């Protein structure tokens, strides 16, 4: 007898083949502490016994006199499956190797070579780390906004996804989202980056989200506009935009000056039909209801979803 | 509430293709390609025959290959702190009795049955079914979360909990599980999938109950 339903097609459950099932991946990571660990052979137990006693005493003295900082949720994976829990405020740096960190109920991070990260702990209801330089890849299965990365130029708030962040010490870098959503925020500037899109990071904050498969002409026009923010560059950007690039144009409406908003709102309405009760003039003023309805018209999910986190418009 | 959150599962399952030139972020957790199961079983058979002739190194190798199986079976019945001891007990018993094994190919199922019997005996003796002994070293949050999920797994019928624990805790694949416990791949696959359906309901039900109590 064979079963032919969706579950039976789950190759990841069978042999980790096929697309990764994130729920299963999260369960595997959660259960990993209970996994069998090979025991050292008996003679090694005896040989290290005396050393173990001395080491334990030394550790106890260190604990008494040094009073280490509070433990964070994050555990650093080391050799042979052992994990070391990191303290709040502790720094982790890589040279030519990667390091993996994991927090129960939150997710998994891979700190790539030549990178530095600091564990911050909880800020409000969000578990935070700071990427001081370099790059990290995140796979997050906690609830939206449970996890965030502080960068020199912005804060990246996870809204449920897999993504890669890169930043130098000056705050220049990029964010690429592979699955789900990430929000970038600095002061009043916000960017919402969906899967398949990227966003530059600059010293003054997040750039504009752009789909990775947008035409090169459009992506170059975005880069030019982000550098100069001048009318000529904006015109070139809007001219090169296709309907799929409307999300980029929406962000210009949201954050641009009056002239930029007017131009962007007009172009947005050409790329994505606005609901009948939304006027381009209201959108050009970045009026909040008009922005909401324009976002809804992108068909990327209702703005009610954003309200479960936080929005500035 | 209106405009519910996009399904995390849907979003995350929708596209997980590796970016060109970049290793897939989850590749670290995938099995390295292994020889076909038949080849492994043939190797195990040779090891069993060698062990039956008194080759200690061959038995060590069998221990290395089957320890996860026995540890996983132990977790179906016993606390995670007792599981390693059961692994040692089972292999000690197997070492003493391996010459009695008539078919070298049956080593895995034979070992698994020893483990289940010993685990049940131990359970009856200790009358322990919960994971909350006081004398344990201080547990961290990771272990607590893991134990909560293990408890949900152990509530499932054993035909589901055993393969799921072997898969999700011990990291064995379906083909490995089938080969080592002596079931057909189809049977293991059905049990994994049925078990996973039930587990999802239990875990979701736990969230629903938590939400209810916090209203």
Overview of this structure, please?
The complex is a heterodimer of chains A (313) and B (215). Helices cover 34% and strands 29% of the residues of chain A. Chain A is of the alpha+beta class. Chain A has a 16-stranded mixed sheet that branches. In chain A, helix 6 packs antiparallel against helix 7 (258-271). Chain A is elongated, with a radius of gyration of 24 Å. By secondary structure, chain B is an all-alpha fold. Chain B has helices at 8-14, 37-52, 56-77, 83-97, 107-126, 141-154, 158-168, 174-181, 185-214. Chain B is globular and about 50 Å long. Classes of the chains: A alpha+beta (313), B mainly alpha (215).
Descriptors:
heterodimer, A: 313 residues, alpha+beta, 10 helices, 16 strands, 34% helix, B: 215 residues, mainly alpha, 9 helices, disordered C terminus
Helix and strand layout, with pairings?
The complex is a heterodimer of chains A (313) and B (215).
Chain A: H1 11-15, H2 22-31, H3 42-66, E1 71-77, E2 83-87, E3 91-93, E4 99-103, E5 107-111, E6 116-123, E7 126-140, E8 147-150, E9 155-158, E10 162-167, E11 173-179, E12 181-186, E13 189-194, E14 197-202, E15 205-206, E16 210-211, H4 216-228, H5 231-240, H6 246-255, H7 258-271, H8 280-284, H9 288-297, H10 303-307
Parallel strand pairs in A: 7-8
Antiparallel strand pairs in A: 1-2, 1-4, 3-6, 4-5, 5-7, 6-7, 7-10, 8-9, 9-12, 10-11, 11-14, 12-13, 14-15, 14-16
Helix pairs in contact in A: 4-5, 5-7, 6-7
Chain B: H1 8-14, H2 37-52, H3 56-77, H4 83-97, H5 107-126, H6 141-154, H7 158-168, H8 174-181, H9 185-214
Unreliable segments of 5+ consecutive residues of chain B: 1-34, 207-215
Structural class of chain B: mainly alpha
The value of Rg of chain A in angstroms is 24 Å
SSE topology string of chain A: HHHEEEEEEEEEEEEEEEEHHHHHHH
- Cα gyration radius of chain B (Å): 20 Å
Look at the structure and give the mean pLDDT of chain B.
77
Q: How many DSSP helices of chain B?
A: 9
What coarse outline of chain B follows from CA principal-axis ratios?
Answer: globular
How many angstroms separate the termini of chain B?
14 Å
Mind describing the biggest β-sheet of chain A?
16 strands, mixed
Structural class of chain A: alpha+beta
Helix content of chain B: 55-70%
Total E-strand runs of chain A: 16
* Quaternary structure annotation: heterodimer
How much is the average pLDDT of chain A?
Answer: 82
């Amino acid at each position: 007898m064979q079963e032919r339903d969706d579950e039976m097609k789950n190759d990841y459950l069978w042999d980790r083949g096929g697309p990764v099932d994130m729920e299963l991946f999260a369960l595997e990571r959660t259960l990993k502490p209970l996994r069998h660990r090979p025991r050292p052979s008996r003679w090694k137990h005896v040989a290290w016994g005396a050393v173990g006693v001395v080491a334990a005493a030394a550790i106890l003295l260190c604990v008494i006199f040094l009073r280490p900082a509070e433990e964070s949720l994050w555990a650093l994976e080391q050799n042979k499956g052992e994990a070391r829990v990191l303290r709040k405020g502790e720094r982790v740096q890589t040279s030519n190797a990667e390091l993996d960190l994991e927090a129960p109920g939150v997710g998994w991070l891979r700190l790539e070579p030549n990178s530095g990260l600091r564990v911050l702990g909880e800020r409000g209801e969000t578990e935070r780390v700071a990427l001081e330089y370099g790059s990290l890849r995140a796979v997050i299965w906690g609830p939206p906004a449970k996890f965030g990365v502080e960068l020199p130029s912005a804060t990246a708030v996870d809204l449920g996804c897999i993504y890669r962040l890169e930043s130098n010490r000056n705050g220049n870098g990029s964010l690429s989202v592979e699955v789900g959503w990430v929000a970038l925020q600095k002061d009043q500037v916000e960017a919402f980056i969906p899967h398949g899109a990227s966003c530059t990071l600059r010293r003054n904050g997040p750039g504009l989200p752009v789909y990775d498969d947008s035409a090169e002409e459009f992506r170059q026009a975005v880069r030019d506009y982000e550098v100069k923010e001048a009318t000529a560059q904006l015109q070139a950007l809007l001219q090169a935009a296709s309907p799929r690039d409307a999300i980029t144009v929406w962000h210009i409406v949201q954050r641009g000056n009056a002239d930029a908003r007017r131009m962007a709102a007009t172009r947005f309405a050409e790329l994505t039909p606005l609901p009948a009760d939304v006027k381009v003039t209201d959108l050009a003023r970045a009026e909040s209801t008009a922005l909401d309805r324009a976002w809804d018209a992108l068909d990327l999910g209702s703005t009610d979803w954003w309200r479960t986190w936080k929005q500035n418009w | 509430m209106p405009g519910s959150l996009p399904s995390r599962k849907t979003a995350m399952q929708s596209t997980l293709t590796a970016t060109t030139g970049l290793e897939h972020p989850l590749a670290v957790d995938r099995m390295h390609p292994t020889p076909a199961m038949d080849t492994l079983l043939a190797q195990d058979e040779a090891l069993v025959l060698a062990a039956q002739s008194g080759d200690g190194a061959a038995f060590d190798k069998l221990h290395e290959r089957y320890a996860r199986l026995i540890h996983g079976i132990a977790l179906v019945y016993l606390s995670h702190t007792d599981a390693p001891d059961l692994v040692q007990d089972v292999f000690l018993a197997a070492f003493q009795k391996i010459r009695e094994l008539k078919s070298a190919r049956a080593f895995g199922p034979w070992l698994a049955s020893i483990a289940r019997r010993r685990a049940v005996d131990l359970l009856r003796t200790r009358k322990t079914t919960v994971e909350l002994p006081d004398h344990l070293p201080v547990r961290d949050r990771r272990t607590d979360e893991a134990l909560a999920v293990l408890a949900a797994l152990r509530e499932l019928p054993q035909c589901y909990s055993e393969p799921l624990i072997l898969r999700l805790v011990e990291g064995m694949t379906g083909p490995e599980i089938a080969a080592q416990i002596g079931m057909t791949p189809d049977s293991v696959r059905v049990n994994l999938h049925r078990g996973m359906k039930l587990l999802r309901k239990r875990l979701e039900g736990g969230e629903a109950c938590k939400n209810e109590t916090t209203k």
